[in-house]
Amino acid sequence: MLKRCALFLVLPFVLLGAAPAPAAVKASEIIQRAIDGFVRPAYASLHDHAGRLTEAMHALCQAPSQKHLDAARAGFSATVEAWSSAEISGFGPIKENNRLERMLFWPDRKSIGLKQVQAALSAKDATATDPAQLAGKSVAMQGLGALEFVLFGDGADALTGKGDAYRCAYGAAVAGNIETMASDVSAAWNRPDGFAALWANPGPQNALYRDGNEAVTELVGVFINELEMVRDVRLKGFFGARPDADKPKQAIYWRSQNTTNSLAGNLSGIDTLFQASKLGDALPPDARWMAESIHIQLVNGVATAKAINGPIDKALADPALREKLDHFALITSSLSTLIGTRLTAEFGLTAGFSSLDGD
Q1: What structural domains does the chain harbor?
Q2: Model's pTM, two decimal places?
Q3: How large is the angle between the packed helices 66-86 and 259-277, nearest 10 degrees?
Q4: 355 and which of 36, 225, 293, 334 could share a cystine (Cβ 3.0–4.6 Å)?
Q5: Tens of pLDDT along 147-178?
């Protein structure tokens, strides 16, 4: 499993005061903007989409048809897009109760999740059709990966008729479980005395963030770590240096053709968070071009990913689309340098970390 490790940075306490600025920018203000402008709306959007997905699954189960299957599949893709944006803030409430892994068990190089889902479908395990009981089962059985197989994997076409009621009931339970997790995380971020309050109000008595340096370190770590995750884990997990090194079935969401939509959603989330926090406003005036450059490159990265449509194996076989994937990798590398080296240097940060670990 992917493990997200801490980013270790040393910041001067007057946030980012490496050079005189017209007005001091407080860490708490940056963090509050990040919470209100990105984190809360992102998880609220995820909850909304997950609720619609659950409704679509119930409609499919009640009246199996191609129309309802198409609607459920569209609901799944919309939920993936919402999650791809929200998931970049993979700390706080989403880390509690194994929610992060329960929401998305990936990578699954040994097909552990696939085997468990197929076993449940074969045995028609009644307990797996109850969202409450499903929540206590293996993390691999209860999230987006499991639901993708139900809706797009082998045998999914049977959902258009009444011949596989169990598959639909299990899929509805998975959707309900995703909705519950999204609701719980959204509610947790909105609690006045919850995690958001701890992040936005660092201090000596704060159990998680003792000062503004630690609070902003969490934010900066999101940008650096998630860019590395997108490039080195999500993209390079299937995109080889040569065509014969490609692994299309290792691509995230390959069955539903949401691989590049997910990559676009990740960068879109990073851009929205960066813009919402206004971290760039804390840069010295002669270095604020970095903030605009970061925004432009993120927008270009999103557009590049969205321009790669269709099955990922066919995209990999198309020289023009391979070039776009290569360009996407270059953009993320450029952003990693710009944020992880140049922007942190302007803020007087010292970085020494490995953001990704595990298999």
Answers
A1: 3-31+194-357 (1.20.1420), 38-190 (1.20.1420.20)
A2: 0.91
A3: 40
A4: 225
A5: 999 999 999 999 999 888 999 999 999 999 99
